[in-house]
């Protein structure tokens, strides 16, 4: 089975950017259980570092997640 992080990263960053709709998808997915765990935070930070550009909503989401 493929690693979910690699597969999702490849899909989300196919165009090199993190946009608002992709951010909303991640927010719904990661906040579904009410908790963002360290693995999810690490994934968000990796996306942020790997993207060629990110929207303000994504940067804000990563910032909030890192503070928890």
In short:
The chain has helices spanning 4-12, 20-30, 38-50, 56-67, and strands spanning 17-18, 53-54. With 68 residues, the chain is mainly alpha-helical.
Care to describe what's here?
- With 68 residues, the protein is mainly alpha-helical.
- It has one domain (4-67).
- It has four helices and two strands.
- A two-stranded parallel sheet has the order 1-2.
- α2 (20-30) packs parallel to α4 and α3 packs antiparallel against α4.
- It starts with a helix and ends with a helix.
Note the topology.
Blueprint: H1 4-12, E1 17-18, H2 20-30, H3 38-50, E2 53-54, H4 56-67
Parallel strand pairs: 1-2
Helix pairs in contact: 2-4, 3-4
> Residue ranges: pLDDT <50 for 5 or more in a row?
none
Count of all domains: 1
Specify Rg, calculated over alpha carbons. 11 Å
Multimeric state of these chains? Answer: single chain
In helices, the fraction of residues equals: 55-70%
- What is the strand content? 5-15%
Following the backbone from N to C, one meets helices and strands in this order, namely: HEHHEH
Number of helices: 4
Structural class by sheet pairing and helices: mainly alpha
Strand order of the largest sheet: 1-2
**Average pLDDT, all residues:** 94
Distance between the termini: 30 Å
Q: Major β-sheet, in short? A: 2 strands, parallel
Q: What is the total tally of β strands?
A: 2
Shape: globular
Q: Which labels suit this protein?
A:
single chain; 68 residues; mainly alpha; two-stranded parallel sheet; 66% helix
């Amino acid at each position: 089975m493929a690693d979910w992080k690699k597969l999702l990263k490849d899909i989300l960053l196919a165009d090199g950017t993190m946009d608002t709709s992709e951010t909303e998808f991640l927010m719904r997915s990661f906040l579904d259980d009410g908790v963002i765990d360290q693995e999810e935070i690490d994934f968000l930070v990796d996306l942020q570092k790997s993207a060629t550009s990110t929207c303000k909503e994504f940067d804000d989401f990563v910032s909030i997640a890192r503070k928890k």
